[in-house]
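Notes continue from the previous slide.

Worked example: a multi-chain complex. Inputs as given:
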Amino acid sequence: MSSITETASALPARPRAAGWARLPLWLRRVILLAAIVGLWQAYVAWSEFGGNPLLFASPADTATAFWDGWRDGSLARATWETMRLLLIGVGIGAAIAALFTLFASLSQIGEDILLLLTAILNPLPGVAVLPLALLWFGLSSKAIIFAIANATIWPIAINLTTGFKTVNPTIVAAGRNIGLKGVRLVTDVLAPAALPNAISGLKTAWAFGWRTVVAAELVFGVVGGEGGLGTYINNAKLYLFTSKMFAALLSIAILGVAFELLFGVLERRTIVRWGMQRS
Amino acid sequence: MKRFRLAAILVAAVAATVVVATSAFGGGQAAVPEKIVIAYQPGMGYAPLIIMKHQRTLEKRYPSLQVEYRVLPSGTAITNGMISGQINVGAMGTGPFLVGYARGIDWKMIAPLNEADLWLMAKDPNIKTIADLKGKRIATPTNTSIQAAMLRKMAEVKLGDAKALNAGLIAMDHPDAMQALLAGQIDAHLTSPPFQFQERNRGAHIVAKSYSYFGAHSFLGAVVTDKFYRDYTAFSNQLYLDVAAAIKLVKTNPKKVAQILQDEAGGAPSARQFKQWIGNPAITYTTRPRGLMRTATFMARTGQLPGRVPSSWRDLVFPPVHPTNGS
């Protein structure tokens, strides 16, 4: 009985949350982050599992491994290798997607083919094609690039097609009115109008590619040569450097946030400034 | 009165000694765990454990003991299982074992299983020597494996640099690498029995043998943690004897062992094939560790053992192995 009254009386406690909400965003984030690190440290200090450095790394160990890894260049090299594969893969993926979209916007059969292929291939997780890629391209980074390209073509193609299809007909008519046609109509009217979709497609593709490349490296497991972040994690696991595994995961998370911000800037500079999307 | 007090003190002292003695040794000497998980990997190198599994040695000796045998794909998987306490007895190559020791896992071998001459196999007839492998793709189980260490030794002897072949190293488990070698996807494979025998039968040739570069050396061992040994000392010592008995059976009755291996492998390869392989001098079953220190020193020198390096082979094995005159 009393607990019910307590719950009921707890409801007006909402203003306290308002107090929290009144804090600036950065302060709320800092406090939450500190709380997470505090919980992490507490887990390391008081749990048997967390206290075993072979199984679990403390915040301090992770920070040290992170600092050492970036200072001696090993994490930077691994990150660059991963980024290199990702850039090539997404580049190829985007180019093929653009061709597909062009074909699809020019003919009905092209659109049908694209829709069918997208329906079949888009739901496939990026790494699922890796064993096949290894068979076709051998044990080289080409196989990983193939897997990334496959993971990126379809989200970009879907978004571009949608973008082209949903361009406001009035704008197209206006373009025609001032004498634009053919390629100029595409580059000057259709492409800018479809830009919001293109950027969101690229964003999705980047996220898919990022997941695919790390997972592929984990499966692929090059031992000796230059490897990326997935290989870095694999090697750290092999030599039981749990703190290095944590440091690599931290790097991946930070890079993910960084790219999110980068896409934010890109959007502000283009589609938000042009008034196509509100900030 | 005084004498009575003295007697009382004496009695109390004796009683205390007895209590201390039983609590100190009672736990370690007599106890048998409720459940035991024994993990090994695919391959005939684990034959002594496969024989124990087949003959239900532990189940017969300890009727109340729950015994589980697990086959895992790599030494790393077994290492992880042992750190988190899900595996009690883990059988693995000397490479991951030494890396675990270096990184601070308190474990030792309760019974080495064998020594093996590990062959570097290639299919392309143009690959005749180590020098032909520069820039080629070579598969070993993992970077920490004994095979990877032996490849570094070969590179050091033939090419003057232990790292000379690193760029082409690829981590693959034995069955996958065998397929890849025969299909021409990789250029060479440093492997172990029986995979090296199978590869030779199917058209690959030997480029180098580990014994020629490193001398004879231990290959696999059954490992338990110091804590497990402390808690179940008598049980662990008996485990050593059981492994030794299984190894003796390999020598005295290879025909029967070959049949066991065929049964446990699900019918193929055939017992005849297994018998031939057991008799190959490339693999010798023994509980005597050989070259553990040589391996550790070499791996430490090439940067594969980040952490503590053992000072003697006795640091790496439990007391039952000490009388074997190991190295």
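Summary box: Chain A has a mean pLDDT of 84. Residues 74-106 of chain A form the longest helix (33 residues).
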